[in-house]
Each structure stands twice: as C-alpha cells, then as structure tokens.
Amino acid sequence: MTVTPSPYASGVVELNAQQHDVRDELLLYGQPRPTPDRGIGQALRQRALHELTALAGGLDPADWIRVDKHRLSQAHTCTGYLRARTGEEFAWSVANVRGKVLHRALEGLIMSAYRRAPLELAHAAIDELAEDVDDRGPGPFLATLPQGDRQDLARDVNDLVVKFVSDWPHVLAGWSPRVESRVKLAFGPIHLQAQFDLALGVPMGDEARTFIVDFKSGWMNNDHQQEARFYGLMETLRSRVPPYRVATYYLDSGEYSFDDVDEDLLCTTFDWMVEGIKRIILARSDDPVTYEPSAACRWCPGRADCDDGQEWLAAFGRHSAA
Ligand code: SF4
Questions:
Q1: How would you class 71 by CB atoms within 10 Å of its CB: exposed for 0-12, middle for 13-18, buried for 19 or more?
Q2: Which of 30, 54, 261, 303 is most buried, most CB within 10 Å of its CB?
Q3: What are phi and psi of 182, to 5 degrees?
C-alpha cells in the first residue's frame, strides 16, 4: 500500500469553489440544525408496526419480502415491470459492479483519512471484493475479469473517486462518517433495507445532525430524489431522529439535489413506501398486475409480451421523450 501524507493533516486547507459550495450549501456546515418534535420518529415507528403488520397479514411469515429503494422505485414505475424484473436472473457485469467497487474505494479513502491515492484505491477495491467467494456477491465475477475489462473498471472508479476528492471538502473523522451504512428493519415478513453511500453526523438530543447522500454517476433523475427521501425515512425509523437533509450527488456533473427533512416529507414518503410495498406484494402474487407504460418499457424485460408496452414503444420509439 502506498501511504502518502494527507494534505489536510495540518488542518489548514483552502477549499476550491465546488468544495466550498458543497460544504456551505449542501452540508450546511456550521449552520443551525433543526430540532424536530421527538414524537415524529416514534409515531412513524408505530405506523410502520400497524400498517406493515396489517399488509403482512396474508403472507407466509417464513417467506420474507425484501423492500429496498430499487424495488420501491420499480414498483412505482409499473407493477408489470417489477414482476418482469423479479423473475429475471441477475448476472454481474462491468456496468452493475461499478457502484460496488466505487463504494468500496470511497470507504478506503475515508477510512484511510485520504492517505491512499484514488487509483490505488480503485485497484485495491477490485482485489478485495474479488476475494469474497460468495456466489451472490461480485467476488467470483471480479476474480475472473479479463485484464481489459479490469482496466476499464479501475479507470472508471478512479475517475469517480478523483471527482469526489475534487468536489467535496475532506470528510473528517470528527464528522462521524458512515460509509455503506446499512439499516435493516423487520415488520413480520416485510424486511425494509437501506444502505447509505455516506452518512455524516449523529443526532444530539433532539437536534437533527445527520446528513445522508447517495452518489450517482449517471444523469439526474427524479426517482433518485425519491430514493434519498426513503433513506431519510429509514434513518428516522432506525434512530427516531430524522436526518436534517438527504441528498443525491452526481459525480459526472457536479450537480446535486436535496430535501430538508420535515414531518410532511416523512409522512409523504411513508405513504409512498406503503403503496410501493402493496405493489411489491401484488407483483409476487398470481393476481393480475397493472401496466403503466413509460420510458421504462424501453428496457423492460417483459416488453415483448406486453401489449401496453408495445403500443407505447410503437408510439414513442426508443428516442422520443417519455
Ligand atoms: S413493457 Fe412497459 S407497460 Fe409493459 S410491463 Fe414493461 S414497463 Fe410495464
């Protein structure tokens, strides 16, 4: 491992323009934090207990249902889409493993207090993940990756880590960073899961001092904002205190979206989650699903057998606006 001294070790750091904006406009560094009503977290927890237990009523308790941001997002896109995706066999590829490797590299960056270089972190992340022999994880795929693909992957991850280093003020140990931080909550067979790319801070008394961000490498998308709100709800259900802000950061554009978390946002997100869980349960059943054609028809695995999807594709084609 190459150990290089952190330029931030001295504590005297001049931020560039983007780092300055991220610190002051996105993280609200040093600014007052809200103190939400202590009852919000408890009330949401009670709602989850009652409403999700009721939803789980007719389900096999041993057959648990995973509810995460991806499934909720797919459920709200089209229940036919969710059913088609659920029946699809998953396979690792360079495209879908990139996020995993990026998160591992970011973890190495923050845990080493920025003493490791991005390119070294990218290669180390591939090597470390490749050691995991669990068939469900990316280990076996990475372990047999051809040299050219590995180079492409390391190049892409290095690019994203460099952008993070360039755009964000250095995340210090005193900010209580959590990387790839999991939240798991079970309500009968309904298992809510989240994994925050990065969370900073912990509540102090009733003061909301937690910030959660998801990193993306693609285009801005409203679904991402909704997924970040789901993270805010999950953190509130877990810790009883809402985060003060949830955000999505786009590393390729340097843009970000965010929501300040309040009771209205949490309640709306809770309703969105419950509706999504109903749709997830429907998609798992033998009952007819509803079809809601949209741009998702273009990559839906069930499109060949879907009349609504075919109609939409005939009308709008591959390149028209949704
Ligand atoms: S093709 Fe479109 S309408 Fe049909 S199931 Fe897929 S996403 Fe839904």
A1: buried
A2: 261
A3: -90, 145
Check: CB of residue 27 under 8 Å from CB of residue 137.
no
Nearest to 228 by CA among 185, 254, 198: 198
Q: Does 291 sit in the ligand 1 pocket, CB within 6 Å?
A: yes
d(CA 13, CA 239): 33
For residue 294, the CA-to-ligand 1 centroid distance in Å is 7
**Total H helices, total E strands in the chain:** 12, 6
What does the alpha-carbon distance between residue 269 and residue 278 come to, in Å, rounded to a whole number? Answer: 14
The mean pLDDT of 236-244, rounded to a whole number, is: 96
Tokens 């970040």 -> residue? 228
- Amino acid in the structure at residue 250: Y
- Report CA(175)–ligand 1 centroid distance (Å): 44
* Tens digit of each residue's pLDDT (9 = 90 or more) over 75-111: 999 999 999 998 788 899 999 999 999 999 999 999 9
Task: Identify which of 74, 76, 77, 81 to mutate to test ligand 1's pocket (most ligand atoms within 8 A of the CB).
Answer: 81
Distance 33 CA to ligand 1 centre (A): 43
Q: If you take atom 4 of ligand 1, which residue's CA is the nearest one?
A: 309
Whole-prediction pTM: 0.91
Q: What is the CA radius of gyration of the chain?
A: 21
Residues 6+ apart with CB under 8 A from 24: none
Asked if residues 228 and 214 have their Cβ atoms less than 8 Å apart, the reply is yes
Per the DSSP assignment, residues forming a β-bridge with 246 are: 212, 259
Q: Residues 131, 136, 138, 140: what is their CA dihedral angle, to the nearest 10 degrees?
A: 50
Rounded Cα–Cα distance for residues 295 and 317 (Å): 9
